[in-house]
Amino acid sequence: MPMIEIRWHGRGGQGGVTSAELLAKAAYIDGYIGVQAFPYFGAERRGAPVKAFTRISDKEINVRSQIYTPDIVAVLDAGIVGLIDVTEGLKENGTVIINTQKSPNEMNLKKGHVYTYDGTGIALKNGLLVAGLPVVNTTMLGAFAKATGLIKLESIQQVIRKNWPGKVGDKNALGAQEAYDTCTD
Amino acid sequence: MTAVKRIPKDQIAIEGLTGDAAIAHALKQCDLDVLAAYPITPQTIIVEDYQKFAANGEVHCRVIPVESEHSAMSACIGASAVGARVATASASAGLALMWEILYCAASMRMPIIFTVANRALSGPINIHNDWSDTYGARDSGFIQIYTQSCQEAYDTTIMAFKIAEDHKVLLPIMVCIDGFILSHNVERVEMLPTKAVENFLGVREPFIKLDPDNPITMGPLALTDYYFEFKEQQERAMEAVPEVFAQVETDFEKMTGRRYGMFEEYRTDDAEIIIFTHSTPGGTAKATVDVLREKGEKVGVLRLRMFRPFPTKEIVEVVKNAKAVIVFEKCRSFGAPSNPLALELRTALYDLEKRPMVVDFVIGLGGRDCPPTTIVEGYEKTKEYLKKGKAPLYETMGVRK
Predict the structure, then answer these.
(1) Are B73 and B115 within 8 A, CB to CB?
(2) Which of A154, B129, B206, B309 is the most buried (most CB within 10 A)?
(3) CATH top-level class for B9-256?
(4) CB pairs < 8 Å spanning A and B
(5) What residues of A are in contact with residue B284 (Cβ under 8 Å)?
């Protein structure tokens, strides 16, 4: 398998960096040898558009720069789509996963095989809230598992439960399950 | 110490850790007596995680939250002087504030392990990676080892104690990771059982220590009469490092199957052009070389790990038959003929009758990203310089002019 590069778009405070890290952790549970997850090396403010990156491979990964030509783009906040080109550098046949109530066609992106799911709705329904606001990062991991088939949902739920032991982990694991079940292209 | 044995797979814990966390976990297992540090980005997680271990009672170590880095290194020296195993961590401005005491630690022969998340120096204030901080401290008398991955950072931190505490060495060591690029990058790390690390390191046996029952003075005055001799002894200790380093790596390899060397040679055997760099650009260079090799280019990478002592003879052996060596370095020495890493290499090569061309590129200051395209650009430029038979002493790459 060639190395897979993933770029995460969200807003500061939405948990995009955590998504990137949890995906990497799930990846090594699934036996990937090369795994990296890192934030965009810039100033980060709550609410501002932020980026994070994950690389996975079945071999050791040597490259250590940021990602410019991702295979997969995950968008935690559909509001960003109008602000920046989330498909920038996306490889041919690349995948875009967006948290939105809209259908993939309605997103009207220039390129990419688009998947959508209502992460915010799932977060509200399951009480995935921080300071009263819905947090969709764990639902995105479930959607990612469905859209890409690269990581098992069980592995994602395992790292979620390890990261947040107890009830919080259970709620987030359920959110990931619902995102997995409802994510469509 | 019991004989070192290969650790079976089922005793290895695999975790996703950032570079900082990997170092914190290594420190946790090294049975420290004292850790004194002051927080500074991007190193903070090292000390933060270690403080959590201490608060949870997972380590039996006195953590001293000092009021500055100057005090941190001073506290480390005091603790090391009574025979404790000691570590600290810092970066950039914090390292700069330690300056005076760095020299004390080295000249008093204190085997302190100092983990550094390399970060640019002010001004303007910048929290991101380059190597100006530790390159500036190259003459302080610290051993310096630069690492490329979280696994390597973990492994090197453990080995560092055994190298530093060896009586042939007795020098402090900086273990360096690239700030953010590695310090905040989650990777798969294989961790040894703590018992194995404890067996590997043993308990520190101080050569001489402060002891109220047998009072001595450490680090007193030496003027024209003896100062020079102290400096001579420091140099001899540096000269002893490669042998001790190799022995420690051999033992570590028996336990883990991993060894790293003073530098890594990557596809250099028949290479006409060799890329010379370290830390994370070393990894990016290797990935780039794989692609260039597929196109038939004869290019390899010499990834330096040990900058002090500089493995002069060994590096000359690797690069002497190449047509050119391309240096990529994240530091600028203002007003110098070229920059620190290239200066070392050029000095090492000067006495050869036939020398490879040395091309020096300053990259990535203040954390500017160094993607594979930067490496390729440097490679293409070098091929042009070889055709012309002449290269500039150095140039910058990736800067707006």
Answers:
(1) no
(2) B129
(3) alpha beta
(4) 66
(5) 62-65
Helices (H), chain A: 16-29, 104-107, 119-126, 137-148, 153-163, 167-182
Q: Which residues on B lie below 8 Å from A35 (Cβ)?
A: 16, 186-188
Return d(Cα B322, Cα B274) in angstroms, integer. Answer: 7
Tell me which residue in B128, B283, B367 faces A64 most closely, judged by beta carbons. B283
User: Residue B359 — φ and ψ, nearest 5°?
Assistant: -115, 130
Asked if the Cβ–Cβ distance from A35 to B284 is below 8 Å, we say: no
**B9-256 shares its CATH topology with B263-396:** yes
Report residue B130 as tokens.
């380059």
Domain boundaries, chain B: 9-256, 263-396
How does pLDDT run across B190-244, given as a tens digit for each residue? 999 999 999 999 999 999 999 999 999 999 999 999 999 999 999 999 999 999 9
Amino acid identity at A41: F
- pTM of the entire structure? 0.96
CA nearest to B179, candidates B218, B134, B222: B134
Residues of A in contact with B287 (CB under 8 A): 61-63
- Pairing type for strands B324-329 and B357-362 reads parallel
- Partner residue opposite B371 with nearest CB, options A21, A41, A68: A68
Contacts of B112 (CB under 8 A, 6+ apart): B73, B76, B77, B80, B86, B87, B88, B105, B164, B172, B173
Flag whether residue A41 sits within 8 Å of chain B, measured between CB atoms.
yes
Average pLDDT over residues B317-324: 98
Contact between A64 and B284 using a beta-carbon 8 Å cutoff? yes
Q: What CATH class does B263-396 carry?
A: alpha beta
Q: Do B16 and A62 touch (CB under 8 A)?
A: no
Tell me the sheet residues that pair with B219: none
